[in-house]
Amino acid sequence: MIIRIYVRASTKEQDAKRALDDLIQFSRSYSDSNVAYVENFSGTKLNRPELSRLLDESKPNDILLVESVDRLSRLSQEDFATLKDQIKRKGLRLIIADLPTTHSTNKGMTGEILNVINAMLIDLLATMAKLDNDKRKERIKQGLERSGYKPTGKKPNQIKHKRIKELLAAGSMTKEEIAKAVGCGVATVYRVSKKKTNSGNS
User: What pLDDT, in 10s, does the model give residues 133-162?
Assistant: First the structure.
């Protein structure tokens, strides 16, 4: 039996190995044989290089050890169901360090009941991890919108904007003529004109 320790962080700025030493120490109560799989990859993605390698190398009765459910999954319910099926087909036992009910094995009726409880708890925690991730993304998006930052928008061409302002100030050309002269869309001329008007009123 091999303890396959999976540690993950979402970005390169985060320390994926943060919990590794504690998990290695934790794993020794089960086996002295362990392999660590470390990666910086989003938990919202089902196909992750190190997780895929772990599943490929696993043998029946090996243990998959993670710090918490959200380190394993921030997946949609459908993708998490796929991951659970992959773990089950490989014959892996899932142990979650911060979920004590997964630490022990009980046989008979008690073991069956505990397995059902664990499955429910893991599903619940996975759902909460997904919701938490969705809320964080939404807060970031709202913050960017309030700041006026447009991550997918093009930066304005300052030279063209300056020329548009000069032609607008001259007042001898229509907005359509200015657009042709500057080499931009009419909508750009209208936006610059609106900004110019607003700044003049402030």
Answer: 788 878 877 777 776 666 555 566 888 889
Residue boundaries of the structural domains of the chain: 3-143, 158-201
The answer for residues whose C-beta is within 8 angstroms of residue 81's C-beta and 6 or more apart is none
SS3 content of the chain, % helix, strand, coil (to 5): 55, 10, 35
Question: Is the per-residue pLDDT at 54 higher than 70?
Answer: yes
Mean pLDDT for 75-88 is 93
CA distance 179 to 193: 12
Domain at 3-143: CATH code? 3.40.50.1390
DSSP-assigned beta bridge partners for residue 63: 3, 93
In this structure, the chain runs to a length of 202
d(CA 97, CA 195): 56
Element at 196 (helix H, strand E): helix 186-201
Tell whether pTM > 0.90: no
